[in-house]
């Protein structure tokens, strides 16, 4: 009858209101337990997520640095390829394995050797200018002498006037000397020195250095001239090997000249 007529609804409401504090007290421990469980679980979850995100960030940062390095390497290789177009000869890119920049021995070891066709006397370049030449060859790597080595001499000429000279290494990576230039030589500070091609070892017309000091002393027969290499001797990581005048071609040329001379002198 109460279910149908709802006569006891008011009494039920009063009783429910009266016993609510008792129910709250009874359910309080369980509620506190659930709250602590949820709080600790959420905190641990946040800590785990934080550690995971930190690890991902570290990984992404490392990958980003690698991508930056690859982008820089790509730019260097593009510059080298652009310089190979200027050289107009057979070329090969090699990496630097070690660098010896001591004052009395400025040499580098590159990653290409005789199995790649590298030969003694072969010029090496970078995107900015002449670096040096190969002095020792092994099957898997080679040693090259830089143009700043004290025992190295490079035939050059002033790009503006055509004045020829010899650029000699000083043992310093940023300085070359041009000895035995007369005081009236047509050379000025800022002039670009390019390879003259004399001797046939270096390709002609390739940048080598830029004049930084010209001192003319009337009491001396020669001017004091210094220049700074255009090649990045201290920061280059890849170099360009140029097949400008390999030994085989030189031997064939000498043989052809000899044959012509023999034919001319034959009765």
Write the layout of secondary structure elements.
Blueprint: H1 2-5, H2 9-87, E1 90-102, E2 105-110, E3 123-125, E4 130-137, E5 142-146, E6 153-158, E7 164-169, E8 176-177, E9 181-182, E10 192-195, E11 207-215, E12 222-229, E13 238-243, H3 247-265
Antiparallel strand pairs: 1-2, 1-13, 2-5, 3-4, 3-13, 4-5, 6-7, 6-10, 7-8, 8-12, 9-12, 10-11, 11-12
Estimate what percentage of residues fall within beta strands.
Answer: 25-35%
Counted beta strands: 13
Distance between the termini: 149 Å
Shape category: rod-shaped
Oligomer: single chain
Provide the residue-averaged pLDDT: 79
Whole-number count of domains: 2
Order of helices and strands: HHEEEEEEEEEEEEEH
Features:
single chain; 267 residues; alpha+beta; Thrombin, subunit H; 2 domains; six-stranded antiparallel β-barrel; 3 helices; 29% strand; disordered C terminus
Write a brief caption for the model.
With 267 residues, this protein is an alpha+beta fold. It has helices spanning 2-5, 9-87, 247-265, and strands at 90-102, 105-110, 123-125, 130-137, 142-146, 153-158, 164-169, 176-177, 181-182, 192-195, 207-215, 222-229, 238-243.
Descriptive account of the structure:
With 267 residues, this protein is α+β, with helices and mostly antiparallel strands. It contains three helices and 13 strands. It is rod-shaped, with a radius of gyration of 39 Å.
């Amino acid at each position: 009858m109460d279910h149908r007529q709802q006569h006891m609804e008011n009494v039920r409401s009063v009783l429910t209101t009266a016993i609510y504090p008792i129910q709250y007290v009874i359910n309080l421990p369980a509620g506190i337990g659930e709250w602590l469980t949820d709080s600790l679980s959420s905190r641990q979850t946040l800590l785990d997520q934080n550690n995971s995100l930190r690890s991902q960030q570290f990984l992404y940062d490392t990958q980003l640095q690698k991508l930056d390095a690859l982008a820089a390497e790509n730019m260097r290789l593009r510059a080298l390829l652009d310089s190979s177009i200027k050289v107009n000869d057979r070329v090969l890119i090699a990496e630097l394995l070690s660098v010896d920049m001591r004052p009395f021995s400025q040499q580098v070891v590159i990653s290409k050797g005789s199995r790649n066709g590298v030969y003694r006397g072969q010029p090496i370049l970078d995107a900015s200018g002449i670096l040096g030449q190969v002095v020792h060859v092994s099957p898997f790597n080679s040693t090259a002498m830089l143009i700043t080595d004290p025992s190295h001499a490079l035939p050059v000429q002033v790009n503006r006037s055509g004045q020829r000279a010899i650029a000699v290494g000083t043992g310093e990576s940023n300085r070359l000397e041009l000895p035995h230039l007369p005081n009236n030589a047509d050379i000025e500070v800022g002039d670009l020195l390019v390879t003259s091609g004399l001797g046939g070892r270096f390709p002609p017309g390739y940048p080598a250095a830029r004049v930084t000091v010209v001192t003319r002393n009337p009491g001396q027969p020669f001017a004091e001239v210094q220049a700074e290499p255009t090649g990045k001797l201290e920061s280059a990581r890849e170099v360009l090997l140029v097949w400008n005048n390999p030994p085989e071609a030189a031997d064939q040329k000498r043989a052809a000249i000899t044959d012509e001379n023999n034919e001319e002198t034959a009765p």
